[in-house]
Amino acid sequence: MFQAFQQRRWPLIILWVVIVAAIVAAPAVLPVFRLNLLGRFLSLAIVALGIDLIWGFTGLLSLGQGIFFALGGYVAAMYLQLNSSGDLPNGIPEFFSLYGVNRLPAFWEPFHSPLFTLVAIWLVPAVLAAVLGNLVFRNRIKGVYFSILTQAALLVFFNFFNGQQKLINGTNGLKTDVTQLFGQMVGSPEMQRGFFWLTSVVVILAWLLLRWVVRGRFGDVLIAIRDDEPRLRFAGYNPTLFKTIVFAIAGGLAGIGGALYTVQSGIVSPQYMTVPFSIEMVIWVAVGGRGTLVGAILGAVVINYAKSLVSEALPQSWLFIQGGLFILVVTALPEGVIGWFRGDGPRNWLNRFGISRRSETYPRLDLEGQEEVQS
Amino acid sequence: MQLLLESLFNGVAIGSVLLMAALGLAIVFGLMGVINLAHGELIMLGAYTTYVVQLIFKLPALQPVYNAYVLVALPLAFIVSGVVGILLERTVIRRLYGNPLETLLATWGVSLILQQFVRSVPLAHAAGLILALVLGFGLPLLLPSSLLAGPRARLVRAGSWAISALGGVLLAGGLASQITRIARATSRNVDVTAPKWMRGGIEFIDITFPVPRLVIIVITIVAVVGVTWFLNKSVWGMRIRAVTQNRSMSDCLGIPTDTVDVLTFGIGSGLAGVAGVAVSLLGSVGPNVGGSYIVGCFMVVVLGGVGNLLGTVLASFAIGMLTDLIGAGRLLTIWPDMPAPLAGAVNFFATTSMAQVMVFALIVVFLQFRPAGLFPQKGRMVEA
Q: Is residue A369 part of a domain?
């Protein structure tokens, strides 16, 4: 972003101006409902960025990002619930009385503090991811075994949150849209507009952070883990440490995304931890283009937008389309859409129609290494 | 003694369903290295096959032999799931050998499509479609090879597919007109009623053993013995093991690896269908029935050690018994006066879903000590 200004690359500068203008103007143009949807999809894009970091760059396919997503959401919702239950009997959230609980469970206590909550939104998922990840990585469990274990972990957390009515309202989840923040209803249009802007800013910040992470030597190590982990280990690196770090980063991002999603959708429930939802997250990245950060953002927003449009028009057909997307993207478009454009995709198409502009030349090889980390 | 026996039986019962569901996966994942997330949906297809067979046997003409429908459903479910599995292998998985993560995503896509398929297509039509597929794949195998290789080969193939399609349409039309319940698409769960001889239980030393559970245990034993025999004694089993050990070498020695792949995948998928029959006897059948088994199946395979049937058997019984032990709070019955905090903890986990939490946590702990499962594959590879 800043390099663009320093180097006076005008197309990039114009692009950034357009993006910022679109974010500022969106609330004025879009109806409240659509704006809210867009805000939610942008928060999902933050999760997708994390998945892109661990899958696209490091080669770890996690099917359990829903854990961290939902945890972030729960942290935010717990604070909001406490913040608006001061006037209620016992001063604890309403749902507790349904299960005959009169005292706040101890682990709720710290969430009275807004500062603690802001930190916990990303720290809790990140620490959990680091612990879980380290347990798996240090045994050199990888590839599909890692994926299966993350899926099992997801199921464990789902069952736990789903079953514990007395602690976190079980399957009903925690509602946030009628809670108070800064003396306003969280579900009000003004607050939602603020959350939309906040989400947009966080998406850009997350993108900048990850771009900084994947460029340079750290990013090179990640790509080396993806492409040939044993060789990297023989070269004296410790892949476990790197994997743990990136898994924690992805977990933290998922937590932030989950918190922003929760305040915009008005509820957090164990449904965020279901197996299908977590695999869906992977397909956003796959369609957009794994290994390209922009692809993850675009994939999350575009696919979810398509999903809401298709579900409104033909509710029956979305699963067919989604299933087809999964198959199509791995068989025909393994690089994703953005990756296809960056790679040889367009040129191959032009070749097919006989309008080839230039043939592949040797100096292209020099560029290849850099192309992969470009975002 | 009685407590022990009851506990043992429950554990074996839970474990045998799990084993039945995981057996096909152990073959597909263990021998071929293919992650098939659509395995749960193949189980679902087997369960729906049982449902359709049961309705067919309720027709007046077949009413006298209604009680035997389970025996017909077993091979049919095997064929239905096997054929769908073969179709899946031929069209999608074939292109992705060597890319387990991609296979995982593609098969998840297939599972979504299959789930929506049973929701939005009437079961009668689905049955017709599957019959057409079975005939279409099966007829060329029955025809003399001179016809298939002759000058009119194309015509013969087209003709056999046309006959299959006709058969499928006839079946679909016939079923839809005779049985109104499957003539329209529904996303509701359906129930398979067990035949009379399967209801109730058998009393033995003051314990009632529910008959459906016993039937499932028998099916499981037969399936495990059959699979073991097939893999270790039959010619094709030997070929399958050869391809597993060294694909290119087997290819050089003249083993048709293509056919072996299809066969392995077909058998693994067919076993999922048989598991579907078992599942349908335990509860209602719905589009999501497969999803509830798939993660547990993978845990069984990972815990047992990939590519090891004995490991799969032991792992599923271990998981079954642990689930029963924790989920029913049996520790409290065994040791009634345990200290209060411990009793509280035991009670906390004494539900089916919390027992799953505990069991999975224990598996993860176990994998810390034995990362490759109970029976790891021996070898010197860096990529274990």
A: no
Name the nearest CA neighbour of B316 among B7, B68, B22: B22
Contact call for residues B65 and B137 (beta carbons, < 8 A): no
Say yes or no: A145 contacts chain B, CB-CB below 8 A. Answer: yes
Q: What is the pLDDT of residues B244-297, one digit of tens each?
A: 888 888 889 988 888 888 999 999 999 999 999 988 888 788 888 887 788 888
- Answer yes or no: is pLDDT of A131 > 80: yes
pLDDT tens digit sequence for B223-238: 999 999 998 889 998 8
> What per-residue confidence (pLDDT) applies to B384?
40
Environment class of A135 (CB within 10 Å of its CB; exposed 0-12, middle 13-18, buried 19+) = middle
For B376, the 3-state DSSP assignment is coil
At B315-356, the pLDDT tens digits run 888 888 888 888 777 777 777 777 777 777 777 777 777 888
In single-letter form, the type of residue at position A146 comes to F
| Lowest pLDDT segment from A159-168, A249-258, B151-160, B325-334 | B325-334
Q: For chain A, how many structural domains are there in total?
A: 1
Rounded-to-10 torsion of CA A134, A140, A143, A148: -60
Q: Which residue is associated with the tokens 């060789």?
A: A231
Residue type, B319: I
A321 touches B at CB < 8 Å: no
In the predicted structure, residue B139 carries a pLDDT above the cut 60: yes
ipTM metric: 0.81
Instruction: Confirm whether A368 is domain-assigned.
Output: no
Cross-chain Cβ contact B109/A148 below 8 Å: no
CB A254 within 8 A of CB A132: no
| CA A62 centroid distance within chain | 12
Cβ of B151: how many Cβ atoms within 10 Å? 7
The yes-or-no verdict on residue B380 having pLDDT over 60 is no
Kindly state whether residue A358 falls inside one of the protein's structural domains.
Answer: no
* B1: Cβ contacts below 8 Å, ≥ 6 apart: none
> Which amino acid belongs to residue A273?
M
Residue A363 lies in a domain: no
Chains A, B: CB contacts under 8 A, how many? 113
Residue extents of the structural domains in chain B: 2-35+193-379
Find the length of chain B. 384
Host domain of residue A204: 2-352
Indicate the angle between helix axes B352-369 and B309-327, nearest 10 degrees: 140
- If contacts are CB pairs under 8 Å, which of residues 110-169 in chain B contact chain A? 110-113, 115-116, 119-120
Say yes or no: B242 contacts chain A, CB-CB below 8 A. no
Strands annotated E in chain A: 174-175, 180-181, 184-185, 267-268
